[in-house]
Every structure is written in structure tokens, then in C-alpha cells.
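Q: Focus on the shape:
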Amino acid sequence: MTSLYESLLLKLANVVELATQDQGASTPQAKQALVRSTKDFKESVREAREYAAGLPGGEMSVQEQDEVIEMLERLKERKRRQLAEFAETVSGISTAKPKPDLKMEVDSNASTPA
């Protein structure tokens, strides 16, 4: 599809060149060439618009796309903060030393198979 967009400039330049030649569109052949070139350019523009509209988000305006991007950047930053907080918590848990005076009761009935 990139070739379609790259060809637009060449096709437009061709239309401009045909329209501004010394002869202009005075001869029937020059008029036909200009009409063909113009139709080809219009068709390529139509295809490019269809392709752009078919892209995800292609139906959105630039402002709407900017708003979505800003929202996603805020979400990304919030997730990074949450991840950093979680990493600190996990780090604190894994480096914590058990207290030697901590007594645990073991229920022998619960730990004995039936």
C-alpha cells in the first residue's frame, strides 16, 4: 500500500506537467492525456482514502486519535507506578527476616493424613 501513496505525488506531478505544457491542452491528444492522467490521479486518491479509512482508527479525527494516545500514555504511566509499588512490596517481603521469637502452633490432626 505504500506504493500507492508514493505514486500519488508522481501522478499529481504528471497532471500539473500536462496542464502547464507549452501547448497546454490545446490539441485533442493533449486534452485526452490530461483527462486520463487526472482520472488516474483521482482514482488513486480515492483508493488511498478507502485504505486510510479501513485502518484501525482511520475513522477517527486527528484530535480523537490524540486524545486516545494521551489516555493510553496516562494508563501506561499508572501501570508503571503500580508495578514499581508492587516490586517494592515484593522486595520488602522477600528481604524481611523471620522473627526468631515467633511461635507457631501446629495442629497435628490437620496435618495427619486420614
Notes: DSSP finds four helices and no strands in the chain.
